[in-house]
């Protein structure tokens, strides 16, 4: 991890890409239920806010390297799950 600012920028970029992919899928596919797309969009926004908040306020008493390593692994897991959900929309 280089620094907190770069980590925040990366999280914002990844979440923006997920939002745009979900939005495009919702607009182009006629068989997709709009409530599923809306729920997925809200989920992505919640992931973004949660991880940005966790970067700004690290857990006290935990070693910084371990904390940020766990944070990145958790974010990657959530992104993988979201990508699977986007794939299931089609």
Task: Report on the architecture of this protein.
This protein is an all-alpha fold and 90 residues long. It is built from 3 helices and no strands. It has helices spanning 4-28, 34-56, 64-89. Helix 1 (4-28) runs antiparallel to helix 2 (34-56). It starts with a helix and ends with a helix. The model has no long low-confidence stretch (mean pLDDT 89).
Brief write-up:
The chain has helices at 4-28, 34-56, 64-89. The chain has 90 residues and is mostly helical.
Largest sheet, in brief, is: none
Terminus-to-terminus distance: 35 Å
Please state the oligomeric state of the protein chains shown: single chain
Structural class: mainly alpha
**What is the number of strand segments?**
0
Strand content: under 5%
User: In terms of per-residue confidence, which ranges show pLDDT below 50 for 5 or more consecutive residues?
Assistant: none
Average pLDDT taken over every residue: 89
The helical percent reads: over 70%
- How many helices? 3
Query: What characteristic shape results from the CA principal axes?
Result: elongated
The sequence of SSEs as H and E is HHH
Rg: 15 Å
């Amino acid at each position: 991890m280089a620094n907190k600012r770069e980590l925040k920028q990366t999280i914002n970029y990844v979440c923006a890409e997920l939002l745009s992919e979900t939005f495009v899928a919702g607009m182009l596919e006629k068989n997709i239920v709009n409530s599923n797309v809306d729920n997925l969009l809200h989920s992505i926004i919640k992931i973004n806010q949660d991880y940005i908040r966790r970067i700004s306020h690290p857990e006290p008493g935990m070693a910084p390297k371990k904390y940020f390593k766990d944070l990145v692994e958790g974010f990657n897991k959530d992104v993988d799950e979201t990508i699977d959900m986007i794939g299931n929309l089609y």
